[in-house]
Structure formats: C-alpha cells, structure tokens
Amino acid sequence: MKTNAELKSNQKRTFFSFVIIFLSLVYIAPLQAQTRRDHRTKKNATVRDHRNKGGEDPFTRLKMEAKKTSVLKSKMKPVKVTVNSPSWKGTSRDKIKFVPFKLEDKNGRAVPANRNITLKNGKSTTAQEAINRLNETEKKLNAQGYSLRNKVPKTISRTYTSNNYLNGRRLKAPKSIGARKQGANLKKYMSLEKKVGVVTSFNNVKGKTITLKPYSMYTESEKKEVNKYNYSKTSGGTIMAKKLITPRRFQKFRIQKIGNLSAIYEHKPTDKVANWNFGHPNTFQASIEGRLHRYAKIYPFDSENPEKNKSEFNVSATGKVKGTILNNSMDILHASGEFNAPSDVSKKMTTKIQLKILGTALVNESKSFAQKHSISKSHSKSFDNSFEFEIPIIAGIDFVGLIGVKGELGFEYEGKIERTIASIEAKPLVNLQAYGKAGLEFAEIFGGGIESELSFVKGDLDLQAYAGIWNQNSQEIVVGFNHYFGYDINMLSGSLDAYAEACVPDFVPFYGGDCKRFTHNVFKWDGFKASGTIAEGSITHTLANIAKYDEELKMKGN
Question: Which of 131, 172, 315, 496 fits a 20 to 30 Å CA distance from 293?
Fold first, then answer.
C-alpha cells in the first residue's frame, strides 16, 4: 500500500500538471492578439492582426468575414442575343421532314388524352399536353436538322470567342520577375527594421550588428546609440556602420534663411502598375489591376530643432477589378489607401481609405493626425450582380433566364505615418464565380437551366511600400525605401452552358421516359492562372546633411 507521503507527492504532481496545461492553453489561445513592448512609452500594447483570422488563406478569411455582411445585389440591363448576333454560332444542317409523335404506345395502342403522367424532370401533366409540347419542339428541331429521334451533339451552338484571341492575351500579361513572397519571407523583406553590420577601421566585419528603424520610433537612448556610428554604402549596395573615433561635429544652420531651405534628395520613381485583362466583352471579360506609388523629399536636418523635421513622405496602393458579360460592363471594385506626411510640420499628416463596389462608396475616410498614427483594418462584402438574358440554343428555341457573377470582395490594409516614415500594406481581394438560372416560364415549357463551373476572377494582390529616415544627425541622413508587388490570380477559368431539356413521356417509342438535352455554350476557356512578383526593391542612401538654399536637388531616386 502507498504511504501518506507518497499520496501527497502524487497529488502535488497532478496539481502542477494541471497548472502547466492551463498556462499553456492561456498562452496559446489568443493567437489573434499579440502583446508587444513599446520602447517609447515603456508600456505593453495589444495589436490585433486581422490577417490571421480564419487561417493564413486570404480567401478563407474573405469568405468568413463576407458572410457577416448583407449581400450587395444589383441588376444590369437585360440582354437579348439573336442568331444574327456576330458572336452567335450554330451548326448548320439540312432540314428534316417533320413526323409527329402520336398519342399511342410502342405497340400502337391509343393512350388516353387525359391520362396524368409525370415526366423524368418531375413535372406533372396530361398525355395530350406532353405530346403537343413534344411536337412543337420536334418541328423547331427538324427545321435546323435535328430530331428528338436522333442522337444530338452535346453542344449545338455557342457564343463564340476565338481561342486564338483568348490565348493571345496571355502573351500581353504582366511578366513575373520571380516567385511570390509570402508569410514570413514577405514580412522579413518589408520589415521596418534594418540590420546593419559594424566594420572596423580595416573594413572587416566584426560580427556585430546594430538595428536601424524609422527615426521617430527610437527612444532617446537608442538615438544616442545609433549616432555613435557613421554609415556608408558598400560596393555591393549594403549599408555598413563604422564607430566614431571622435565626437560628431555640430553644424549650425543659417537660421535666417531657413524658409528657403532646399531639398537635398528626392525619391520619385515611376508607379509600379500591372493590369491583367482577359476575355472579350461580347462574351466574358475580366480585369484586375494593381498600382503602387512612393514618394519622398528629404530636407537637411536641423539637430537644434529635431521636432521641425521638414522631410515629406507619401505612399499609396490601389486595386481595381472590372468585368463585362455580354457587353454589360461592371466597375466591380476600387480599393485604395494613401498615407501622407507633409513637409510642413504645421500641417497634419493624413490618411485616405476608399472602397467602392459598383461605383458606390462603402468606405470613404479622410483623417488627419498631428504626430503619428497606425491603422490595421479589413472590409469584406458579399456580392451578386446579374441581369435577364435571352439567347438562342437553336433558331426557334431561346433560353430565357438570368446570368451574372457572385462571390466576395474585400480590402485588407495596414499603414503607419510618423514625421519620418510612411508605410502601407494593402491587399485587394476578389473571388467571383459566374452563375445563372432558367426563367420560370422557360423552365415550365422546356425544362433547363445553367451549368457553370466558371471562375470569373479570383485575385489576391500584395501592394506594400515604405519611405522613411532611419537616422539623422548634424553630419548625415540615412534614408530607406522598400516596395513589393506580388500577385496570385485565376481568371475566366472554366465554362458556362445554357441548356433546354425535352422530356419524352414514357409511352413514346423513342427515348420514352428520358430527357434529351440541347446545350448552348456561352463561354469556355482554360483561363489564366499565375502567381509571382511584379516588382520589388530596397534602396538605402546615406546623404550628407548640408543645408542648401534655393539650389537644385542633389540627387534623384530610381
């Protein structure tokens, strides 16, 4: 038997095991919230990362968030396609002599006209009504060379877009410069912190590194530490730090001319723009576009008045999605974010966020801030845009129903503005599928509907950029610029068919009890699917902090 001491020992072990499990659960549970130490305030701050909601897949997040919203429904103008429309193509055949179906079974025995029957599609009618509709359909088919008595090709007509044209658009698609960066790799590449190696006087790396970050994010002690070094660019383009041997000399500005102080550096690269546009407006066409803008103007730093930083920064990102179905066009999504820190410190910094769906502004925010501001938000919406359309399956048999696109749209973004940094991370998201359905009257007469496995546009863009000052003192200014434009898209992949069904009563000798389907192909293509990197770049410069007045800029960014 166990002694009391052994029992107490086991109880203690069990208790501590529960404590450890409990603490582990407490630690693991809040995956969406991370506590970080703010070195400027010496306090902890809780930051929620909306991008981790629902897992790492952005489309899973989008669907989950969009479900919480009402569906934005809209109607476009009706469309009627005729056999004379340029894009309508049917297979031409010689006419067949019409031979009516009789109200009799395979043995030639008469079937009562008022007999109630149920067709294969579930519709109930009388034998006479079924035969009448069957003969009406047979006449129309015979006129075009088809018959319910004969085998029929799966597709007998189509709304035509040349495959050569569709595939030719691939050659004009934006080209990737490399694999797409995601997750930790992208986060590391776009980090606001820069690890800088320290060299000795013999230009040998000591193995030590110091961390640079936007100047306004340092504590006072960190500013003193980073200013113990001079910074220079190596032949390989990286920035290295070399410790000062003697204290840094103080350089005084000519205060009386401060109003005419000229910039010493301007970063004004061409916007990074990519547009993917596929299909044809006569059938299906979809496009998605991303734009990334960066700008900075660097002025000399007045170390006597550091709060009067004169440098300015601006970054913005824009995503657009458009579409056309049977010449009905849609401005589906316009999402943009802009973060601006102006040169004049008496002016407030600004953020502008805009989200439009079908031209209607769901978000239109312009805000101003005196010193600094960080933002992290996401917006999602369920979407359904359709119209009534009529299209011939063959001459005389027109499909009548509804066609459109539906799915989810969203915009995730983060940004930061301080007097020495402007940064943005924007992710426009779209996941739309084409769909349709038969009109009630058409379905009642013929039976039929829409078969669709067409991904209209599914896109995920990464638009990220920052521009800022990483260190400044009386002798030098270290500036840094980073940008990244990645993509993952799937456009116009699959097919959409409209079909009519003629269900034959079970007593008819030919195909009795079965349904024959006649299909019009509205669109079919294997689509465009690609992911990669459109543009990326990281530039760091060390500038001499020399006051210049009414002169040309010293250098321009690439």
Answer: 172
Strand, coil or helix: 181: coil
Between CA 109 and CA 196 the distance in angstroms is 96
Average pLDDT of the residues in 54-69: 85
pTM of the model: 0.84
Q: Which residues pair with 344 in a beta bridge?
A: none
Asked whether residue 364 carries a pLDDT value surpassing 90, the answer given is yes
Q: Where do the DSSP E strands lie in 169-311?
A: 194-199, 205-212, 229-233, 239-243, 265-267, 272-279, 284-298
- The two structure tokens encoding residue 83: 């056999």
Using a 10 angstrom Cβ sphere, with 0-12 exposed, 13-18 middle and 19 or more buried, the burial of residue 242 is middle
Residues 396 and 144: their CA atoms lie apart, in Å, by 9
At 370, list the tokens: 């005196």
pLDDT of 414 above 60: yes
Between CA 385 and CA 76 the distance in angstroms is 7
In the sheet with 205-212, reading across from the earlier edge strand, the strands are 205-212, 194-199, 239-243, 229-233
Cα 496 from Cα 454, distance rounded (Å)? 6
Q: Residue 123's pLDDT band (boundaries 50, 70, 90)? A: confident
Measured distance CA(324)–CA(320) in Å, rounded: 14
Model pLDDT, residue 437: 93
Distances (CA, A) of 537 to 152, 272, 482, 499, 558: 58, 11, 6, 51, 10
Rounded-to-integer distance, Cα 105 and Cα 442, Å: 28
Tens-place pLDDT, residues 171-219: 999 999 999 999 999 999 999 998 888 887 655 555 788 899 999 899 9
What is the number of other CB atoms lying within 10 angstroms of the CB of residue 518? Answer: 26
Q: Say if residue 25's pLDDT is above 70.
A: no
Nearest C-alpha neighbor of 296 from the set 54, 558, 34? 558
Tens digits of per-residue pLDDT, 77-89?
999 999 999 999 9
Give the C-alpha distances (Å, rounded to integers) separating 187 from 181, 193, 484.
9, 11, 11
Q: Which pLDDT tens digit goes with each residue over 379-399?
A: 999 999 999 999 999 988 999
Q: Look at residues 94, 193, 143 and name the one whose alpha carbon lies nearest to residue 416.
A: 193
292 near 485, Cβ under 8 Å? yes
Radius of gyration of the chain (CA): 34
Residue (of 479, 465, 486) closest to 414 by Cα position = 465
CA 345 to chain centre: 35
Per-residue pLDDT, 308: 76
H helices of 251-337, where?
none
pLDDT digits (tens, 9 = 90+) for 486-545: 999 999 999 999 999 888 888 888 777 788 899 999 999 999 999 999 999 999 999 998
Strand partners, 497: 451, 521
CA distance 106 to 104: 7
3-state secondary structure 43-67: EEEEEECHHHCCCCCHHHHHHHHHC
